[in-house]
Predict the structure.
Amino acid sequence: MTIAILAVQGAFYEHGEILRKLGIEHFEIRQQSDLNKHFDGLIIPGGESTVQGKLIRELNLYDTLKEKILQNLPVFGTCAGLLLLAKQISNDEKTHLGTMNITAVRNAYGRQLGSFSTDGNFKGIGTVPMTFIRAPYIEQVGENVEILAEYNGKITAARENNQLVTAFHPELNDNLSIHRYFADIVENNA
Ligand code: GLN
């Protein structure tokens, strides 16, 4: 199994470190030619969704990535990655890949509570550390979307078939369980 990590901006390095600990082969997607390599799953990291959205268009990655996801390529979006996958962002007129049937709210916790860590329950895994950095949450989900975690009544993780998103950053903690959960999705898709 090989997992590609979108590496145009944001916390891509940390995802690679987690995959390394799990012994999963991976490489970074920085330019169009990287898309010629074979990969079975894709991680879209946290960072700044507007910047990543702009760069994937400018670097001509947009069409291929969108097509692959629509053809069921397993994808895991964290934080800004969640925003890239959301079909709608209620406080931003721009959407990006827009492949997942969720409506997200950007920078949803306000300035004061912009960044915080907590422990929370993740469906099918149990208690995991959750680090939020100017995070979004999910306001609304479509009918095929499974809710996997909530914090203060707001949805913070969800799955629609092969698309997995978390509003928090599992790559910033030592806990490997959410990446392992994604690797299982990739494995079962093979
Ligand atoms: N606030 C960022 C955005 O709107 C997301 C923050 C993050 O990825 N940590 O894209």
